[in-house]
Amino acid sequence: MWVEKNGPVYRIRDLVHGKKVTIETGWPNKTAAKERLIVLKAEQLRGDWVDPRAGKLLLGDWIATWWPVYKASLKPNTVQSEGSRIRTHILPRLGHLALDELDTLVLQTWVAAMLTGEKDPDRPDKWKHRPIAVKTVRNCHGLLHKILAAAVQQRRLRANPCDGVQLPKLVPREMRFLTEPEAGRLVAAVPKHWRPLVLLLIMTGLRWGEAIGLAVKNLDVLTGRLTVVRSMSELATGELVFGTPKTHRGRRTVTFPAKTVGAALAGLVVDKHRDDVVFTAPNGGPVRTRNFRRGWVKWTEKAGLPGLRIHDLRHTQAAWLISANKPLSAISRRLGHASIAVTDGLYGHLLPEVEEGILAVLEAALTHIDPALLDIDDSVDLALTDAAAGDDTADAGDEVYLTADELEAAIEAELTDDE
Fold this sequence. Notes:
By secondary structure, this protein is an alpha+beta fold. The protein has 4 domains: 2-49; 59-164, DNA polymerase, domain 1 (Orthogonal Bundle); 180-316, hpI Integrase, Chain A (Orthogonal Bundle), CATH 1.10.443; 326-415, no CATH class. The protein has 15 helices and 10 strands. Helix 3 (76-94) crosses helix 5 (134-153). The two termini are 58 Å apart.
């Protein structure tokens, strides 16, 4: 690189692929240009130099380059949702800006505009962009962060401007746990055809897509055991696709009471091929989530449980196991959470009741021990504290440790899981 005069100003030039190109221009004097040249050469030596021209690329053009590579690693339903966010919320508002124009202030304004919406300036009574939910805003920001992180990696940006953006706090829907009598009322209110599916969801805590995608070959009704190896989802086009479970620990074996649940499922596997799905619609076709949900609203109201989500059956399974003093490590594996930290983050507030139960068990055990054998000095006031009842992570040899951001995202996904 070198400095040369260009009319009334000075510029910094370089030889790129045998051609002379301008790196920066507009310096008022030669001294200022040389000082800048020294900085650029130092950055080159450190290996963190970013060509200023690279940031002139429009965000829309960068996405057109980045997206085909990125989406190749995604599941079909994720391609659909992420592609929709790009087309609806990122490109229309930011696609015309150059990468180096995307500073924290611009992106903070973008986040605010998504939350409040934008009126059409020509028709004030019409929306140009309607307000969107907090979770959608956070998802859009997360996707843009990935897009710009790739630009940083390719040395088109020096830093990711998304890092400094303040996001609205997500207030997830409150988890709902059914009591055993409520679960009984729900099963009774569901039509006969759907009872085995609802019963399985209650007694296993499977995700909705894992249940409707369950294949005959992965279900053993005699021993009360099933293996989760895939999940089924429905795209906006109506196409049904199979994918891997939601998390890396989602591939798992789950048990259930064979005498009841197994018996209820037995009739569904008769005369079916090993690769057929266990659950079908009343007409014999695949289970369509939208159709099932229409019935679900009626059945839950009939059972006196209005507003109950299908995903709340998964929360119910966790709550029942925690109330029975089962360790979080076992519950985490059963539910297929990404980490035991996710399980603790979701259901840790239920543990005080469990600890009370543990203490009651220990105190009951002490009634069988003669205090005289313990040689306790009554004059000493002992402050007994109940330590954690065993380290329930000791047997979690495959435990995965998540960063704070990964943990927050995993918990958020579990609380707002699509059905």
